[in-house]
Amino acid sequence: MTALSFEFYPPKTDDQRAQLDRAATRLKAYAPDYVSCTFGAGGSTLSYTSETVRHLNQHHGLPAAPHLSCVGGTREEIRELLKLYRAIGVKRIVALRGDLPSGMGYPGDLRYAADLIAFIRAEHGDAFRIEAAAYPETHPQASDALSDLRHFKAKIDAGADAAITQYFYNPDAYFHFVDAVRRLGVEVPIIPGIMPISNFSQLRRFSEQCGAEIPRWIAKRMQAYADDADAVRAFGADVVAALCERLVAGGAPALHFYTLNLARPTRAVLQRLGHG
Ligand code: FAD
């Protein structure tokens, strides 16, 4: 069976907490290697990630990895958070640059994810396994695709153990990316990030923000289904399961699911892949 990981976001209300608990309970049945919890930039949102990581670990018994981004933070703030994670038994961190809301505010002491990864290694040696982000379709702010590949390699050279990709629906983007970084000497596992499709208008919004391409044939079919939620879900699960099959057949070492704290869309894909 392919190794799995599931990504959640930190809930902020009681309803959202209950939703996360339902999703974590259902997805735990697939015995993920680990789950991860995203990180929002700045202020009071900081503690939500650590609280959620603790909850997933203690209440659900799931090994949980916090995402940690460096934009907007000082070295001292990041140092404190790393100390906390070490103290509560965190073994893995997804290390990112993050995005400043509308380009405002203090950019942070550390500028790029590679700087954060080097900082974690300098402060904590090999205490954490570090995952970096990868962009098979090129990061939207990159000046060009080749410099983006070099910047990706810099994160691995700084000490990342593996990478998780931004989601994509064209498997060739992943295979080309893996080939390109292997040619640069990168040997670490590159794990595809998988976004199940359940709400197409939300997906379109996300994709515009993060620069992920939705192939025309998928968009056209989704538009035709319009308000038929069952048809959207079934088609979305078929498309994403077929994508996963091609990725695994082509050598993808694991699959990382962006769950958006919902079990159903991820389960629909996993069932089609024969995972119970
Ligand atoms: P970097 O690797 O630092 O790259 C950012 C950009 O800078 C790229 O265009 C790169 O080419 C360029 N660059 C890098 N180094 C240099 C250099 N030396 N000189 C010039 N240009 C350079 N965001 C959150 O806020 N919270 C999350 O929890 C979160 N989780 C994520 C999980 C995954 C798996 C992924 C793929 C993304 C996630 N993101 C999250 C989004 C991420 O923070 C954004 O995509 C962000 O814009 C880039 O982060 P990065 O770590 O890839 O940055």
From TrEMBL:
Its EC number is 1.5.1.54. Keywords: Amino-acid biosynthesis, FAD, Flavoprotein, Methionine biosynthesis, NAD, Oxidoreductase. GO terms for molecular function: methylenetetrahydrofolate reductase [NAD(P)H] activity. Its cofactor is FAD. It catalyses: (6S)-5-methyl-5,6,7,8-tetrahydrofolate + NAD(+) = (6R)-5,10-methylene-5,6,7,8-tetrahydrofolate + NADH + H(+). Pfam families: MTHFR. It is an enzyme of class 1 (oxidoreductase). It comes from the Bacteria. Pathway: One-carbon metabolism; tetrahydrofolate interconversion; Amino-acid biosynthesis; L-methionine biosynthesis via de novo pathway. The keyword Iron does not apply. PANTHER family: METHYLENETETRAHYDROFOLATE REDUCTASE, METHYLENETETRAHYDROFOLATE REDUCTASE (NADPH). Belongs to the methylenetetrahydrofolate reductase family. This is Methylenetetrahydrofolate reductase. It comes from Stenotrophomonas mori.
